[in-house]
Amino acid sequence: MTLTVGFDLDMTLIDSRPGIRACYLALAERTGTYIDADLAVTRLGPPLAEELINWFPAEQVPATADLYREMYPSIAIAATPAMAGAQEAIEAVRAAGGRTMVVTAKYEPNAKLHLAHLGIEPDVVVGDLWAEQKAQALREYGAAVYVGDHLGDVRGARTADALSVAVATGPCSADELRAAGADVVLDDLSAFPGWLDGYRSAAAARA
Questions:
Q1: Comparing C-alpha atoms, which of 171, 175, 174, 179 is closest to residue 155?
Q2: Using one digit for the tens of pLDDT, what is the confidence trace for 42-68?
Q3: CA 100/CA 38 separation, integer angstroms
Q4: How many CB atoms lie within 10 A of CB 87?
């Protein structure tokens, strides 16, 4: 079977804080509603609506989310860099003959824009899934490993019966990720190729 490895996007493959911060500030100006953008980018991971409900009445959230997503490409894409080791992590899976996928809570068209801008080319991109919902896509494509930075990513991996590899590059500490049930915790994706070599060697020895 082909090894399939899934990755989260925000704060796993990309440092989306600068772009999202700029987009929240623009949204605040456009709507006349105060948003603490610096606070908002400390809790990235959950769906957009879960952040907007902190700043807008519930009945305004769907339309505000649509407006944010419309503004996002021209503001956030160019401002967002790749995380350290992101490209190398994708390439390590490909070099091993594996398949890569991105499963993210981000609006899928904007997720694809980020990846294209940075030249990161996973085989599959699935957006609009959060936490346990991510297991839908992970199971569909037979992912054996899911890499993410958030407790929700750990839950998604475990729901899909995939190995949970966590990177401590987002809002959750290494200790929090371990406590949530991550099987492996890395400082960042720079350590992923070495980990993958060990994982494959161990799997081959068991075969």
A1: 179
A2: 999 999 999 999 999 999 999 999 999
A3: 32
A4: 16
